[in-house]
């Protein structure tokens, strides 16, 4: 089955503009055109678009993605080169995950910190160390804001 660029845009969540741009940048030389010059995507092409999207989302440059596509089209003689490329990308993804986990710890700390501030009624009563996000947060009861009685 052949898919139009609009159908591919709908299936992938990429805009038709982005798909055309990727094609213009040499990322999709595998896409065939019909006699009217319109792109016709196959199921395999959809898989490649999905892979291109994955690589882009993990920080691979368009230049490196283009290189991957070019060597993939050369067939089995580039298997080792493609394996090396994906091992390198996996390492980069692992680094991104580690950085995101560190950011998550800091955000978790801030959630706990501001929960304590809300409980105390003031930030002045709360102590903690954002550089040590796994450490406890303390509330000084003497500095708590007493709720006003109605």
UniProtKB/TrEMBL annotation:
Keyword Transcription on entry: no
Keywords linked to the UniProt accession: DNA-binding
InterPro entries in the cross-refs: DNA-bd_dom_put_sf, MerR-type_HTH_dom, MerR_fam
Classification via SMART domains: HTH_MERR (SM00422)
Coiled coil: none
SUPFAM superfamilies in the cross-refs: Putative DNA-binding domain
Domain of life: Bacteria
Keyword Ribonucleoprotein: no
Residue stretches making up the HTH merR-type domain: 2-71
PANTHER family, alphabetized: REDOX-CYCLING DRUG-SENSING TRANSCRIPTIONAL ACTIVATOR SOXR, TRANSCRIPTIONAL REGULATOR, MERR FAMILY
Name of the protein: MerR family transcriptional regulator
Source organism (scientific name): Levilactobacillus spicheri
């Amino acid at each position: 089955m052949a898919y139009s660029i609009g159908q591919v845009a709908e299936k992938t969540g990429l805009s038709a503009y982005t798909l055309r741009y990727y094609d213009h940048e040499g990322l999709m030389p595998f896409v065939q055109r019909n006699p009217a010059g319109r792109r016709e995507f196959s199921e395999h092409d959809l898989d490649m678009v999905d892979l291109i999207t994955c690589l882009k989302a993990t920080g691979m440059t368009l230049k490196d993605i283009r290189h991957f596509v070019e060597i993939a089209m050369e067939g089995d003689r580039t298997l080792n080169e493609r394996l090396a490329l994906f091992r390198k990308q996996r390492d980069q993804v692992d680094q991104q995950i580690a950085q995101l986990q560190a950011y998550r710890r800091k955000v978790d700390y801030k959630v706990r910190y501001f929960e304590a501030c809300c409980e105390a009624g003031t930030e002045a009563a709360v102590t903690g160390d954002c550089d040590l996000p796994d450490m406890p947060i303390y509330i000084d009861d003497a500095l708590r804001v007493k709720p006003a009685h109605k």
